[in-house]
Structures are given as structure tokens and as C-alpha cells.
Amino acid sequence: MAAESERVDRSSHSMDKSITLPPNEIFRNLENAKRFAIDIGGSLTKLAYYSTVQHKVAKVRSFDHTAKDTEDDPLYEISMQEEILARLHFIKFENAYIETCLDFIKDHLVNTDTKVIKATGGGAHKFKDLIEKKLKLRVDKEDEMTCLIKGCNFVLRNIPHEAFVYVKHADSEFRFQNTHPDIFPYLLINIGSGVSIIKVESEDTFERVGGSSIGGGTFWGLGALLTKTKRFDELLQLASKGQHTSVDMLVKDIYGGSYGSLGLTGDLIASSFGKSATADKEFSKEDMAKSLLHMISNDIGQLACLYARLHNLTRVYFGGFFIRGHPVTMHTITYSINFFTKGEVQALFLRHEGYLGTIGAFLKGAEEDNPNQYSWGENYAGSSGLMSTSPDLNPMQRARSGTFDMLEMDRLERQLVNLPLLQDPSSYVPDTVDLSEDALAREYWLYCFEEALDGVVKRAVASQPDLPEAAERAEKFRHKYLHKLQTLRHQPFAYGSLTVRSLLDTREHCLNEFNFPDPYSKIKQRENDMALKYFQKAVKSLEELSWEQRQFALVRGLLAGNVFDWGAKAVSDVLESDPEFGFEQAKRQLEERPWLVDAYDQWLERLKGPPHKCALFFVDNSGIDIILGVFPFVRELLCRGTEVVLASNSSPALNDVTNNELQILTERIAAMDSVIRSAVKEDRLTLVQSGSSSPCLDLSRLDKVLAGVVRERHTDLVIIEGMGRAIHTNYYAMLSCESLKMAVIKNSWLADRLGGKLFSVVFKYEVPPDKKHTTLDHVPVTPS
Amino acid sequence: MPPCGAGVDRSSHSMDKSITLPPDEIFRNLENAKRFAIDIGGSLTKLAYYSTVQHKVAKVRSFDHTAKETEGDPLYEISMQEEVSARLHFIKFENAYIETCLDFIKDHLVNTDTKVIKATGGGAHKFKDLIEKKLKLRVDKEDEMTCLIKGCNFVLRNITHEAFVYAKHADSEFRFQNTHPDIFPYLLINIGSGVSIFKVESEDTFERVGGSSIGGGTFWGLGALLTKTKRFDELLQLASKGQHTNVDMLVKDIYGGSYGSLGLTGDLIASSFGKSATPDKEFSKEDMAKSLLHMISNDIGQLACLYARLHNLTRVYFGGFFIRGHPVTMHTITYSINFFTKGEVQALFLRHEGYLGTIGAFLKGAEEDSRP
Q1: Is the CB of A4 inside 8 Å of chain B's CB atoms?
Q2: Is the confidence metric ipTM above 0.90 for this complex?
Q3: pTM of this structure
Q4: What is the pLDDT of residues A550-568, one digit of tens each?
Q5: Taking CA atoms, what residue in B is nearest to A213?
Q6: What chain B residue is nearest to A146 in terms of C-alpha separation?
Q7: Does residue B223 sit in helix, strand or coil?
Q8: A736 and A765 housed in the same domain
Q9: Fold agreement between B23-52+81-159+354-371 and B162-247+283-351
Q10: Distances from the Cα of B161 to the Cαs of A24, B176, B180, B350, in angstroms?
């Protein structure tokens, strides 16, 4: 008799048959698919498969320079190679399409030796025979709750901005939460037909601590009886237009006002549907639906809050078809939780909540592959984003096809972890500006990325002169990215908070999608070759300076080098129109001191003290930046006795120097320069991958090896260079050691925002409060 | 928007006028009545007064046996005497009779020097003018919850076998509890239109720790909309004849049996009204009423159990018009509490639950009188 819960919805409403799914757009890479999992709910089917994707990657290979050193030979050769990537595909579609979809899968499933499909969800047994007949795969049922929790752990761990708080009246309705380094313990309230309340304590320990029979099925069932409206979404539509006060009895209806001595305000609902008991009048469908929604949401909210208090948990996630992105429901649940916990507990929702079951079922089947040993990244190119199926929010998508939704996750080569030097990993936010909250900034950047698209397409085509279909692919890329920008204009929250970083990353994902792995490879090569020729000259002229002059020249050189950035529009214009734009010219272009943010004097004072133990340097661009800016600076650090760890991207993004390229460059420089040579030999100069392939930097997702090196070497200085890494991201990042953030602002809008102008300089040197006294001790005391 | 729980019921259904109260049987000893208190709910009025009763008592008196000792003399003599004792009267009647009753009281109220009547309940302000006009007493309103708790403490302390456990299928449905020497602390779940949950720690310390908007008013309101039946009692009648399994989705409807790994049996309700979402069929009034009753009782049961655990309380009393002696609701609440607490907490009901408010209001008045 009592309550239970399950996460299954079911409906038999007829679909609009005129809308058809575009199956080849949805079921991508099916040819090599293996390991299938399916979660069949009452109305939605979620399919998961694992496949390998062949990708073109640009590889660099050093020539043998010992044999003959010809001036005109390039430093390294670039070749395009095929690489196999592992990717997880998740597709959600309405049950009405299940047969069509199974047929499509059968026809395209060629190279698989899969014999089994993992299945979960209430509908799994209903469609078992159909699946077995169509796909010739054995259906292997998995426990629903286990799958749900497994899936939840997976998304919380692997997808940044997975969880969000819903705030109806805020500028941005979605407040995305940072990934907590430790996701446990938490409470999961799954609202399907009924409600299940699950306490999750670790990967394998969870317990259903409670539940209720008043859930989504009750809203649907009672709603259908009261309003004669059979469709769930229509009921929610009705509710969003209704007034609950005409049906509910409020405190003021009984007491004429508030009930002060008990602290109950007059507007509180004393009794849900209390007015319909005796009033001889008709109630509108809208009002009844609204009252019902409040009744159920409040009840679930109160139960959630009581179980959270009883088990001492503060993180409470809500999922299930009752929630599934519906703003009205999220609002009422949030309101109720706030009311009952007086703000102590926040209602958290999940972007990929609908996929939890199928992700879990998939993981169960793939345990031999140890998917939890890897880090995974959401592929923005292949994922639909939050609310793609909400007709209110995305009329475009709705008209285009039936309601379907996709999520793709790439298995990352490296396992990603927090930078151990973050002061507080749980409060670290990489991005400086949240564009979903800042409408003006959003407008500008969306416009900016759209404007820059022509140039990106042009460069992509130019990077593959030997491939005739490159132009066609580049057009496909243009179309895809433009569509993403349009989606983000409507749903800035589609992939979590909208940021310059997410816009840049989405572009990289789309370029990769169409086999443009490294459009800047040739430009980078040319610039690296050119810059190397000046290296020794630059070092020599620096050595002629006095110590103090040299320190300043090194910083100016580094900043000037950073002006060379094809990623920034203002610079790429100049570079393309005037290839002679030189290093010296860049230096002249720099803002004179005092800079926009100027902590140079403090830095200089610090340099007069003892050397740092080890500096971690996140580098930026290829060419002049890395060779004439960064290396001399690094060289000086090494001379001071500071070990240096150079962290560069694992794979290409814009003209940023990649780890592979940097290895070749370092070899070459070592051959020319004895300081660098001995440092490399003695392991005082180390190169590591950042684990990233973004022009920005998320210090909470870095290569595990990097984290290990940082710890081993007792790193006490972090240097972050460039607009993407030091301004768009990490500008406010608090580190537990000294840090230097340097960038030249190469975007006039951003310069304006920060109160500066084009080519303004940011030179931020920070010392954490608890380290201040130690560094001050070393500052030489000068008589005043 | 969120729930609160007010312990008030109200109804305007017309009473059967052919039934008349026999007032002189009910309002006894009115001549000497003093200290009135009244609790007007939505459908019932509860009146309390204190009066002195002249009683014949048999007295025995010993003879003086030291003077002379005659064998045939009795040991003591017996005489009948008049004695005055104090008595509290509580009367409950339907609101429809309120005017008749007030008239009767006015006519028989001779020897009183009372000027004030304590009043509580949601209907107190509605009938204030009528009472003041009829009885020429000033209506003095008392806080409803305070009265309720005061009354509850009073009956728990003074009436043997006040509380009972309801066991539907037992030989005796009512299992009366012995009076505990220490009645505190306890949880009181008052189910009126909404639900209020009070933690009572001592005579004067109590706190409304929670509440819910899903209460008696919800059963009545949703029941009326679903079944077109406007009377509360008729709704309960319907519910007692219905089958909830036709309307509710059970665990076995989804999983084909129990959900073993979570310890959920197949007969558990997975989703209240879950079956009415999609099939295009008519559901009987009885079945819907039963499903509704289970939904509400289970919900209240679960909340009661959670608040009891959160505050470490094992004694949980239920009151309010949703309960008021209705076997069906007592049974569903009891079932739900047993389910959620696995028998650790028992649902306790009170014999005089309907009088709590008026007893409390009366005691408030008495306390004020005895103050110097």
C-alpha cells in the first residue's frame, strides 16, 4: 500500500507521425559501434553505444638536423594521420520511433561482434522481444536503480556544469555548479511515476532511504481525471497558466490574515484543494492543474528536505520525468525546498538527467573496459544541449524534426584532475565572465564569433591544400557552428554556463568533427621556423642588459610575444595584411607603464629575494610568443636556480603551441643554448601536457601526470600567460602559491570592459595571504 | 504557496432539520454554570462549562462507644446529606444547532456572574456577534493551537484509557493505552483541512515543527471534484467500498512482481492515481475515493514518521476532523505509520480528541480567574 517509486514514465499518446527523425544525423558512427545499452521509459527511449571514430590528426615530426643544417629547411614536418578515438553516443527519442530506429540500427550495424544489449527502465521488458528480433542481440536486463546511480556518478564526475540551481526570476535562470572534487555523499530524488529517495555514499554504496507514491504519475493521473487532458506536457502547460489560490485554501482564507504566533504567512497554502470541497462552482482546468502541481512539488520538496536533514546531507539532486527540464516544475520544487530548509539545502538539477539510466546500463556492460578509469569530455559538436526538446524554448529544433536529443562524450587520452595548487577546488570557477548572466557580453561574443567564422573557414580550407573536398567540409563546419551559435543565442545554458571558453571549445569540437584537426599547423610551423632564427640574437641582447633592465625586458618581451596571436581578431588582421609586423614593432605597440593591471614592482622586489623552487608555466602561442617571449624568461628562471615545468596543450587549439611541437622546439633551442641544454639534461626543465585542447584553461581538469609533477617538485610559482588562460579564464583564480598572470588585451571590447584600451597590459602578481610573511622576510631591507 | 497546517475544518452543508437536540438532557446543571468556553470548528461546535452540582451523599457517623456498650446498638449511624461538587461539562453538537443551543443556554443561565466566554476554532470569529448578542457575554478569543495542546495535555493526564491504538482486524479494534506518568514529550499531528505537526515538550513548551497542505481539506476537495460527492462522510463511505488497485499503479504493475533488490513488494503503491494517466476508461467513485484516502493517509503517515525520527519521539497522537473516530482513516493512518516506521512508532488516537480545543480554551479561562 505504501509508497514506492520508479523512474518510468509511460504514455500511449499518439505521436505526430508527420515528423520524422533524421536517423543518419542521429545515429552517428554506427558502423563501428559496440556495446549497446538501452533505457526504455514510458515515453522516451534512451540508447547508448560505444564506438570508435576515425579522426584526422596533425602530427609533427622533427627532421634529423644533425646531418645537414640547411637554412631554408623547415624545423619539422607536419603530416595528417588517422587516429582512432573512443566515443560514447547517447540518443534520446520518443518511444513512437523505436521500431524505425531499431531498423536503422540493424541496417548500419556492420562491424560489430556485439551479442548483447544491456537494458533497463520499466519498458525494457515490454520491448524485449522486439529488440531481440530486430537486432538479433540478446537483451540483458540491468537493475534500474543501480544504473541510475552509476549514471549519476558518471555525469557528476565527468561533465563540468552538469548540475544547476534553477532561479526563475534571475537574469540567468540556470546557475551551474562547479564540479566538486568529491561528489559523495548526496541524495538523489528520482521523480518518475512515484518518488524514490536514494542516499548515495560512494560509487558502490547507495540505499533507497525513502519514497512516496505522490509523484509524476499522480500529477498525470489526477490531472487527467480533473482536466480531461491526457498529455503530460499539456497538463504542465495548463498549470503554468493557472492560479492556485482559487482552488487552494490559504492561511488567510481561514484566519483572515497570517497566523502570526506560528509564523505562517497569509499566503501559505493551508489546504490543497481546500476550496473545492464546498464551493458550488466550476474550477478552471488551469487552476486545478496549478494547484495539483504545487501540491505534489511541495510534498516532494518537504520529503526531500526531511530525508536530507535525517541523513545530514546538503547536496540534493532531482531527476526523473516529472522534472526533465520543465521550468514550472523546477521552480515549484526549488521554492518548496527553499521554504522547508530556509535556504540550507539547494535543489540541484542535472543537465543530462534523462540519460542517467542508459549511461549506467552502458557502464555496467562496459566494466571490462574500466570506463571509470578514464576521464570523459562532453563533445559540444555532437551534443544537443539542455532543453533541446523543450518546444517552448526551442521552436527551431521542434520544427526541424521530432523531439530527439543527443549526447556524445569523448574518452580523453589522459585522466584529468585538479591542479593541486588551487586554494579551494570546490569554489574554483575557471571562467571570468558568465555570459549566460551577462546579456551585453553574450551579445558581443556571439556576434564576435559569428563575424570571425569566415576567417576560420578560410584558414581551415587553406590548411589542407591537397584535399579537394576540404572546401565542402569547411562549409559543413560553418553550417554546424553557426547552428550552435544560434542555439546558444536561444539557450545560453545549453552546455552549462555560456562562456568565451565554451564558445572557443565548441568551435574546436566542430572543426575536429569535420576533420580539420589543426587549421593553424602550417602557420605555426612557419612562425616557429622564423622565430627560432632570432632566438640567439634575442638572448644575446638581453644578456647585455643590467640585471634590473633585463628583468623588465624579459617581461616586455614575453608580453610583446603574446601579441602574436591569430586567435584574436585585431591581431590576425594586422598579421595577414602585414607579414613584416615584427617583434620590435609589437614591443612599441605595448602600453607604457603603469599598465592596466601593474604589479611589476612587487614582482621585481620578489626577484631580489631567493629563487623559487619550481615554476609551472602554462604557455600560449607558437612562434614568437613561445620562442622569443617565453624561452628567454624561462632561461632566466633556470639561471636563478628555479626548476621550470612547461605545460602546453595536449592537442591543437588555434595557434597554441602543442606539447608535440614544444618538444621539437625545446630540442632545437637546447641545441643552440647551453643553459636550456643542461637544464633539459638535468631534468630542471620539464615539459608536460596540460591534458587540454582548449585555448582557455580549466585548472580543475588537468592531466594527472602534470598534477604529479607539480606535487613532486614542490611547485611554488604558477605562471599563466595569454588572454584565453589568464583573462577569459583564471583571472580570479586563487592559488595556494605565488602566481603571475600576464596578458595583452587584444580585443577592444574586452579592453573597454576592463577599463583599458587595445594592447593594454595585465600583469598580475599575487601572493596568497598565508605566504606573504615568508616572502617579505626575504626582501632586502633598504634604509629609508 | 507552500503548505501550512491549520487545524480548522469548515463546511456549509445543510443539516437535517428534522432531528432536534433534547437540550435539557444535554445542558445539565446550567443554572450554576460559570466559565464558558466554546470551540467552533467548520461543522461542529464544542461547548465547555464548569458548574457546581448539588449531590446527595450518604454520610456515616460513629456512635460514642466508650460511654456505654450495648450489644444491640449499631456501630455507626447513616445519614443522607447535600454536598456541592465541581463538575466540568463538555458538549459537542453540529453547527446547525448553534442558535437553538445559544437560546437554551441564555434561558437557563440564572446564577452566573460570568461575563466572558472563551472562544477558539476557525469558526470563532464567524459566530462572534451571534454569541455576544444571544448570551450577553464578551467573546474572548484564544489561540487555537495553544488551546489544542492544553486540552491534549489535560486529557492525557486526567483520563484513563484516553489514548488508543487502532487495530482493524484484531478481536478488539481499540487497544487502550495506560496513562503514562510522564506524558511528555510527544508529537501531535492535527489533521484538519491541512496538517499541523506539533512537538510538545512540557505543559507550556510546544512548537509547530512542520505541516502539510495535503490534509482533510484535500481529501474533501479533490474527492468532491472527482466523485461529485460533496459530503465528507459520504466520501469516506465511498472510500470504504472502493478498490485502490484499479486506480493506483503498483510495483507489480511496473516490474511484473516485487522489486526485490530494493525490498519493495509487488503490492506497494508505486504511484497514486498512476493508472488514471492514460487509459481512456471510467473509474468508479469508490475506487477513486479509496485511492485518494490512501494517498493522503500514507503521505501524512510518512511525514509523521519522519518528524518523529527527526525529533526522536516515539509517542505520536493523531487528531483533527480527518480522524475524529473514522475507522477508515484511523486504519489507513495506522497502516502507513507501521509501514514507514517498521512498527517502531505507533499511531495513537484519542477518545476525546474532538474536545481538545474547548478544554484548552476553558483551562485558559480558569487559569486567568485563579490569578490573583
Answers
A1: yes
A2: no
A3: 0.81
A4: 999 999 999 988 887 655 5
A5: B271
A6: B261
A7: helix
A8: yes
A9: yes
A10: 75, 5, 10, 9
